[in-house]
Design brief:
It contains two helices and twelve strands. By secondary structure, it is mostly beta strands.
Length: 193
């Protein structure tokens, strides 16, 4: 049975599911289309951070330009450039037991590609969500529907998957940022150009 979360809520992923290891992080959204508008390309990404809240190196940033962490513990299944169709628009596979012990947090983000040039923001996006699925049983474990109104933001930290006292947990974050991907990269210790 899936748990539905609101912004700020936390839930344990492994307390009652000690065998949970392989998860799918599915992200989806719909775009409001207007005449003459450029097409939207939303991109999911993960920042694998250590206790200081920063990545260890640029390889800890998993996105359309770096589809897998060197350990293969986090793998992005590919860039969906249109978001068309139903279901998850982008999926990230995570093997919780394979994440190196010095990494404590996976920050899951969504950004709008080339948002400034295209004059786009998350105020033009509807029905955004993140869900966690047990890859081995195909059961949806939890879902967080982002209902906030992001009028000018071009980047969102949707959720965090983090380890606390040996247990993997999920936090529904839903924080918006201006400045797109570059702002998030800077926040997590990556020098983006």
């Amino acid at each position: 049975m899936s748990v539905s979360l609101a912004k700020g809520e936390r839930v344990s992923l492994t307390k009652d599911r000690s065998s949970l290891n392989k998860i799918l992080v599915g992200l989806g959204w719909d775009v409001n289309h207007y005449d003459g508008e450029s097409s939207f390309d939303l991109d999911a990404s993960v920042f694998m951070t250590k206790a200081n809240g920063k990545v260890g190196n640029d390889g800890d940033f998993i996105f359309y330009g770096n589809l897998a962490h060197s350990t293969k513990s986090v793998v992005h299944t590919g860039d969906n450039r249109t978001g068309e169709g139903s279901g998850d628009d982008e999926v990230i596979k995570v093997k919780l037991n394979s994440i190196p012990s010095d990494y404590t947090n996976l920050a899951v983000a969504v950004t709008i590609y080339d948002a400034q040039t295209r004059l786009q923001n998350f105020g033009m996006v509807n029905n955004a969500y993140i869900r966690i699925v047990d890859e081995e049983t195909n059961e949806e474990v939890l879902r967080y529907d982002l209902s906030e109104d992001f009028s000018t933001e071009t980047a969102l930290v949707v959720a965090e998957i983090y380890k606390h006292n040996g247990e993997w947990k999920f936090k529904a974050v839903g924080s918006g940022y201006n400045g797109g991907l570059q702002t998030l990269c800077s926040q997590y210790g990556i020098d983006a150009e």
